Amino acid sequence: MYKSGRKGWRLPTLHELASLIDPRQPSPALPSGHPFTVRSGLYWTTTTIEGFGGDFKWIVRLTNGTLVGRDKGDDALGWCALINLALLLWWFLFFALARDWAYRLHSRWFTIPADKFDSIHYSGMAIYKMGILFFNIVPYLALRIVT
Fold first, then answer.
1. Which run of H or of E encompasses 132?
2. Taking the model in full, what pTM does it have?
3. Which residues are registered as beta bridge partners of 3?
4. Quick count: other Cβ atoms within 10 Å of Cβ 135?
5. Domain boundaries, given as residue ranges, for the chain
6. What HEC string does 53-100 produce?
7. ω before 28 within 30° of 0 (cis)?
8. Of 37, 41, 54, 114, which one is least surrounded by beta carbons within 10 A?
């Protein structure tokens, strides 16, 4: 990519990005008349946070000009939680809308009363929901609070 006679692009350092901040301005905290299109509030820098190990980088929150430290990999738990919640929702909707069909299909293979079939599915959904909470959402929130 070429822009203004220069090749390529890169993430700014913390010093470069922080030099653009004007804390007196409302969201985004940039000088009035700035030429930037702000698409989200958080912008990564290449500056590593010393003493944490791993890949912790400084992020500038352009909504108010504050600095945030974050591990580049901690959003993976958020995506896992979102995908698992979507699967849980799909399971619930499928069971709510196609329960009779699913029961007929399963009763061909297994001798199971209808109330037991319902109990198995609702118990499975409850266990899956607790797994999402304990293995995705709680660790994600803990990492967000710590960093």
1. helix 114-132
2. 0.53
3. 6
4. 14
5. 2-71, 75-146
6. CCCEEEEEECCCCEEEEEECCCHHHHHHHHHHHHHHHHHHHHHHHHHH
7. yes
8. 37
